């Protein structure tokens, strides 16, 4: 993707959460200070960055199609403005829905069963992964077993 991730130290509101790092595209990758030099953690979050950039692009396409259909049907409403946020929320919407589904399927392993996490965890030790990664690679991780 064209936007490069900026890696920043976790602070403020994010410091309340017990996380090593979090990716919040398009704003950047936030990592706890003690993990700023951990290449595996940084690579894991960079994989999430690539996933989120792809989901933003997909969200823009879905938004454009939806807005077009609504406008062609004569639906003019302030609700159309909500569509502007959809591309940035699409990743998180997918993430939460998949997590809820996986709670019933995988129980306590739901988090590591999410396709985005599976791709990131299985490839975060391969520092060349992002150079060879095909777009939307997380889709091949939708089905299958959880990580141990």
Molecular structure report:
With 148 residues, the protein is mainly alpha-helical. It has one domain (7-140). The protein has six helices and three strands. The chain has helices at 39-72, 79-82, 86-106, 110-113, 115-123, 129-132; strands at 7-9, 21-24, 28-31. Strands 1-3-2 form a three-stranded mixed β-sheet, with helices on one face. Helix 1 (39-72) crosses helix 3 (86-106) and helix 1 packs antiparallel against helix 5 (115-123). The longest helix is centred in the middle third of the chain and has 34 residues, at 39-72.
Search tags:
148 residues, mainly alpha, 3-stranded mixed beta sheet, single chain, 7% strand
In short:
This protein has 148 residues and is mostly helical. The chain has helices spanning 39-72, 79-82, 86-106, 110-113, 115-123, 129-132, and strands at 7-9, 21-24, 28-31.
Counted by DSSP, the helix tally is 6
Structural class: mainly alpha
The strand order across the widest sheet is 1-3-2
**N-to-C SSE string, H for helix and E for strand:** EEEHHHHHH
CA-CA gap between termini: 30 Å
The largest sheet, given as strand count, sense and whether it forms a barrel, is:
3 strands, mixed
Can you tell me the residue ranges where pLDDT is under 50 for at least 5 consecutive residues? none
> Quick one: how many beta strands?
3
Give the C-alpha Rg: 17 Å
Amount of beta strand: 5-15%
The shape, in one word, is globular
In total, the number of domains comes to 1
Q: What proportion of the residues is helical, as a percent range? A: 40-55%
What integer is the average pLDDT?
90
């Amino acid at each position: 993707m064209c936007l490069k991730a900026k890696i920043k130290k976790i602070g403020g509101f994010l410091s309340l959460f017990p996380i090593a790092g979090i990716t919040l595209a398009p704003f950047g990758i936030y990592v706890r200070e003690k993990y700023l030099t951990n290449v595996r953690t940084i690579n894991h979050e960079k994989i999430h960055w690539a996933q989120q950039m792809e989901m933003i692009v997909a969200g823009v396409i879905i938004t454009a199609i939806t807005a077009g259909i609504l406008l062609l049907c004569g639906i003019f409403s302030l609700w159309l403005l909500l569509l502007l946020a959809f591309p940035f929320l699409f990743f998180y919407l997918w993430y939460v829905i998949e997590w809820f589904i996986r709670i019933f399927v995988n129980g306590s392993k739901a988090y590591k069963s999410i396709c985005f996490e599976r791709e990131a965890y299985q490839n975060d030790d391969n520092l060349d992964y992002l150079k060879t990664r095909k777009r939307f690679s997380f889709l091949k991780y939708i089905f299958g077993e959880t990580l141990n």
